[in-house]
């Protein structure tokens, strides 16, 4: 979970909820296996869950983390949660082109959308050329293996034995998210024994920021089950 993206949403949760919102360092090297955690993100998720004071009653994950969570649960790890899951804009295999340039195009789109979401209303007052420059600088700082790792995570999810996931899974997404197209979200729900794809709660990959109240309502409903 990215603190800058999710912090305001978590702050709006019901104060009676006991919330743990870790900001996971996906880019580090695992000191036990020597593998980059981008290549095996379920390892990091498992360790976070192992350190929780008690088993969670609900787990919410977004994007890369959502795909990693399903990978962890389908593997039936001892660390895997058995509670209901809410997956927001999970990183999914894409229909059509799957070459490196197509993956990079989707990655650029998500980064650009993230910049605009962070800018909020200021976007209307900032020249698009300046937004382009901000996006370019962020992309320059991203390690070259990150887009490929995201694509690999989505591909692993495509091959995961999701019939093993017996927990209720609520899937939420944006109506025009290139990283998690609605048809792919529905196809994922169809592979899960107790999967449900909700109606879109926003337009893009950061739909939880576009419509946080709708997300909170969906999480509350999932928590009751």
Short summary:
The protein has 225 residues and is an alpha/beta fold. 47% of the residues lie in helices and 7% in strands.
Task: Tag the structure with descriptive keywords.
225 residues; 9 helices; globular; 4-stranded parallel β-sheet
What can you tell me about this protein's structure?
The chain is α/β, with parallel strands linked by helices. Helices cover 47% and strands 7% of the residues. Helix 2 (41-50) crosses helix 3 (64-74), helix 3 (64-74) packs parallel to helix 6 and helix 4 (100-119) crosses helix 5. The longest helix has 20 residues, at 100-119. The radius of gyration is 17 Å and the shape is globular. It starts with a helix and ends with a helix. 32% of the residues are buried.
What layout of secondary structure does this protein have?
Layout: H1 3-11, H2 41-50, E1 59-62, H3 64-74, E2 85-88, H4 100-119, H5 128-141, H6 145-159, E3 169-172, H7 182-191, E4 195-197, H8 207-210, H9 212-224
Parallel strand pairs: 1-2, 2-3, 3-4
